[in-house]
Phosphotransferase
Amino acid sequence: MRATLEHLAAVAVAGVPGIVPVAVGPSPDDDADFRSAVVTDQTNKRWRVRSPLTEEAGIRLASEHAVLSAFTPQLRAKLPFLIPTVVGSVDDDGGRTFIYSHLPGRPVPINQLDALASAAPSRPQPPSAEPVPAVTTQIGTILAAVHDLPRAMVMDADLPAYSADQCRTRMLNELDQAATTGLIPAGLLQRWENALEDRTLWRFSTHVVHGDLHEDNLVVDGNRITAVTGWSDVHVGDPALDFAWLIGANDPGFAEAVVAAYSRARLQAPDAHLLRRAHLEAEFALARWLVRGVARERQDMVADAQRMLAVLEKDVEDYQEELSTRDAPQPS
């Protein structure tokens, strides 16, 4: 059942004593797995309500609860961003719906993030205030802080931890699963298999990763990224996973600028192939989307994935043709 906004407001009332809703509106989320809303109460305070639509999504929300609970006040104080706090939960139609403290701000599409430099601050600043860092610096600093989180936080929450070779093996298994659908272009399957067989790409140190980082999980308030949400896929694994969303930016130098800022902020320098694996993750996300659609018998998801895969196939062919032309001997 897809919960209505009114139903989610009622859940907030049940989960947090004293709330009297006066308004409710949608909150950006993964619509295939979650239904989310922001509820405004009688004191003008806001609460985010997040409800799972599948059993798998329910497991992810339970994982997020465990992760957020592991962020002690001392650890939260060290972070350069805010994170949500779970304030209540309700058993609802066989799943568990969670209510969070609302973080002020809104998500901004990736290709509009650069405009933060010219955006007005959320509150007046004194003349002596430090200049707002470039958005690529803000993102790089956020990623560095996430990847420097203590592994014990993940292990104590009983969340997955993978070695570099296990990350590669898991993707190989996913590739086999995607191939069985018969819906992935052969050229892309071969391209991904070649990358997975290139062992030099898979020599890296694993770290705590967010696991579902993208623009919808970054909260912008004024001219700053102030909070990170969506902590349902945290694990120890390949840090490149958290860079994959940056590949979708119109500016091809955007991801490189973030990596440069990330390198300056990290306690440990990133490996040389981080961005190449991020490209692989960005491409392979389309195969994962298709497999999810097939498993759920959602033809709309399958068609959407096939359309994007066709565009990717054409882009790869064009790029390879451009390289061939560039490398061809020139007539004297």
Notes: The longest helix spans residues 299-327. The chain has a mean pLDDT of 91. Residues 53 and 219 are 23 Å apart (CA to CA). The chain has two domains: 5-101, 110-327.
